[in-house]
Structures are given as C-alpha cells and as structure tokens.
What does this fold into?
Amino acid sequence: MVREYFLGRRALITGGSSGIGAAVAGELVRRGAHVFLVARHQDRLEQTVARLRDTARDAGQKIEYAVADVSLATQVSEAVAGAEQRLGPIDLLINSAGITQPGYAEDLPLESYRALIDTNYMGTVLTVKAALPLLISRRSGWIVNLSSAAGLKGIFGYAGYCASKFAVVGFSEALRAELVRHGIGVTVVCPPDTRTPMLAAESPLRPYETAYLAAQGKVLEPEQVALAVLGGIEHRRSLVVPGFDSKFLRFANGLAPGAIDWMFDGMVRKAQRQHHQSGSSP
It folds into this structure.
C-alpha cells in the first residue's frame, strides 16, 4: 500500500534530472506529491519530467521544472519563485545537486576546489536562503540536504569534495537547531557511492588508491537512497546514513577515529604495493 504521508505535498528538488534527485522525485510522485525539478540541462530535465508524468498517481499531479545552476543566486531565486507560482506553497526542499572531482590534493586545480564549494555547499546555501523566508512565514516545511559519507570522514583522493560535503553537514546541523523554533525540520543525508551518472563519470578519474578504497564498499542504487531520504522525513530524523558500510564508518570513526585512519592507511599502502608490482608508474 502506498503511504499517504507525502500525498499532495509540494517538493522542490535540485539536481532532479538524474541520480538520487530523480529517484527521490520518482518516489514522491508515486506517493502522490507534486514536484518541481531544478537542474542545469534542459534535455535531461524534459526526459525525467516525461517519465515522471507517465508514473503519476493521478492526473492532477503537477510535475514541473526549471533550468538553473544552483551556484548562481539569481537563477536559484527565480527557480524557487517559479516553483511557488506553478506548484503552490513548497512543503519540501530537497537539495541534491552536486558535482565531484577526485584527484591528489596537490594536483587538483584551485578552480576545482572553488567549483566544488560553489555547487555542493554554496548551491545548498543559496537554495535554502531563497526558500527560507517562505517556509518561515508559513511556520512549516522540511529541508533535506544531500551530503555524503565523504562528509563524515575524509577520504584519500577527495580533499576538495570532502571539504564541500563536510560543510553541508555543518550547515545542516546549525540550520536544524535554528529552525526548530519556526516549526521547520532539517535532515542531512550521507550516502556512500551510489550508482548515478556522476559516479560513472568520476570513477575513471580516481587515483588508484581511491579506486581501491571504493572497491571495498558496496555501491547503493539511487532508489535505495531515495527510500532512506523519505523515511528520514517521515520519522523526523536529523541525520540519515544509508547503507550498512556508511553506518559502520560513522559509528567506528566516532568511537575510534585513530583506528579507522590506521585501517584506511593500511588499505592505501596495499593499493600502492599492488600498483607498483603491476609495473605502473607512481
């Protein structure tokens, strides 16, 4: 039986054209919600919207979109205003837009560090800032910010990405504390590697040590993360960590961070030995 918690709710989802954002949109539509997708590529948005309309629970559901770059404040403000005009008052804001670029810290260009912060962190901040006056005026709503397991523990090869995702976690925790008095909830979600177009694009670019570390964990499907996101909202959780591996990492790193560092360092050394033995250049 389809649960009724999300029936008739109105959700704005950034990064909604693919990956986790599209999976969350699909699950919401199946549960009777109206959705407004925001992403940079119109063709992908149109394809996703067409698929969602085919699976709508009833003909009255509104499924709309806007092309916008979340790192640009003007475009974000226009998208939020468009969502309110075309859907009505927004109940849910789900920030799923994100980019990644793996690489050794010394090789990653400064422009890449800035781009990661501008999209992953400031993109979240800009969307929240645009929507917050509306949510506060209504004294209701829920905000979901997608971080990453790499926002809980620094990972070899992800200095720029981890920094941006740690920032999302800190922002979300502080935001949650502030918005309680306004009746607004905040959830931050920290999934591990998830089978998305972003993962497919970044995997060949990973340092070999990073690739070795990633191979030790399980890759989740976007639909699994989407169910965890909606479950977090339903159960009013401030933190959602999908997948056993990520839950274990969070628990163990909180309990004994030195031991986790030792374990990861050992895996990195093993990857380096294998790489050198294969005859590859360092």
